[in-house]
Amino acid sequence: MVDAYDETGVFRALADPTRRQILEDLRDGELSAGQIASRFSISAPSISRHLGVLKSAGLVTERRDGNRILYTLAEERLATCVGRFLSAVCPEQIVLRHTKWRRVSEGEGA
């Protein structure tokens, strides 16, 4: 179970737009640190610091492949922490959105 202190790191990590963009970039799969850095106009050391924050928060995992470090989105961790917060703050909206997404994916809604 994730406690409130543990979730604080997740929300601190999500507070930065660069880190949110990194998470979006990882949604389609694993990327190397170099691939991630090439998508931004900031220095590689800055990207490395952002990746360190995301890793510390448990939002990305890393693995080594030779001399490369590959990063993957920790989808379940992100969904659990953010979902728990949203469920507590606006539970009715979560149900409505989920229902609408299901209808849209099934071709019933706009």
Overview of this protein structure:
Helix 1 runs antiparallel to helix 4 (44-56) and helix 5 (75-89) packs across helix 6 (91-105). The mean pLDDT is 85. The radius of gyration is 16 Å and the shape is globular. It has helices at residues 4-14, 17-26, 33-37, 44-56, 75-89, 91-105, and strands spanning 31-32, 60-65, 68-73. Strands 1-3-2 form a three-stranded antiparallel β-sheet. Helices cover 63% and strands 13% of the residues. By secondary structure, it is of the alpha+beta class.
Mean pLDDT metric: 85
Cα-to-Cα separation, first versus last residue: 36 Å
Order of helices and strands: HHEHHEEHH
Residue fraction in strands: 5-15%
List its traits:
alpha+beta, 110 residues, single chain, three-stranded antiparallel beta sheet, 6 helices
List the topology elements.
Blueprint: H1 4-14, H2 17-26, E1 31-32, H3 33-37, H4 44-56, E2 60-65, E3 68-73, H5 75-89, H6 91-105
Antiparallel strand pairs: 1-3, 2-3
Helix pairs in contact: 1-4, 5-6
